[in-house]
Amino acid sequence: QVQLVESGGGLVQVGGSLRLSCEASGVIYSAHAMSWYRQAPGKEREFVAGVIYGSNTKYAESVQGRFTVSRDQLKNTMYLQMNSLKPEDTAVYYCKARIRGVDVWGKGTLVTVSS
């Protein structure tokens, strides 16, 4: 059973940067899509960014041009580089892997952007 662990969250000022990591305990192949989601207080969980086959990426319109998703297949880790952070980026960020039709979620890491 693959497990996902997020890290890298924290408190950052507006305009700052953070890099989140999502490390998988088991092997995740490049064909398995991996994604970042976030959930702000009082809101539903929403898609942020995703990557499949190592280089095919997709972003939510709200983060396009500011966030970059990537994967290191050898380290079994996915990253989310977040730049030009805004207060509305404050949320718990979750990573997800889709393996054989089943979604596996991490427990999340909190990102707080202060103004």
Output the keywords.
115 residues; mainly beta; four-stranded antiparallel β-sheet; 11 strands; globular
Write a concise synopsis of the structure shown.
With 115 residues, this protein is an all-beta fold. The chain is built from no helices and eleven strands.
Structure in words:
There is one protein chain. The protein is an all-beta fold and 115 residues long. It has strands spanning 4-7, 10-13, 18-24, 34-39, 46-52, 56-59, 67-72, 77-82, 91-99, 102-105, 109-114. A hairpin with a 6-residue loop joins strand 4 (34-39) and strand 5.
Q: What low-confidence regions span 5 or more consecutive residues with pLDDT below 50?
A: none
The computed structural class is mainly beta
**What is the mean predicted local confidence, pLDDT?**
95
Radius of gyration: 13 Å
Give me the strand/helix succession. Answer: EEEEEEEEEEE
Count all strands and give the number: 11
